[in-house]
Amino acid sequence: MFARRAHDIGLVSELTEPGNALAAATACAEVIAGHPTEGVQGTVRALWSVKEAARSQGFAHAPHLIALGNVPTGRQAEFFASRRSGEFRTR
């Protein structure tokens, strides 16, 4: 992915000239370090909490989403038991 595209979609917030990335990152770090420690820590914790909540929600919904379009488990077992030898091939 090109840097311009990453910036356009919000993956990165700032573009620099070649060779200036370290200076820009250091400047950002200095701004963050200038804020109260508690505020920075609270923000980081909030971001991790949201990420974990989204992951937990995803895992909670997974069984229902996987079941959509699939036959019931008992019927799957019947299909498996009734298959003929050589009917399936592996890659």
Automatic annotation (TrEMBL):
<protein>
    <recommendedName>
        <fullName>Enoyl-CoA hydratase</fullName>
    </recommendedName>
</protein>
<dbReference type="InterPro" id="IPR029045">
    <property type="entry name" value="ClpP/crotonase-like_dom_sf"/>
</dbReference>
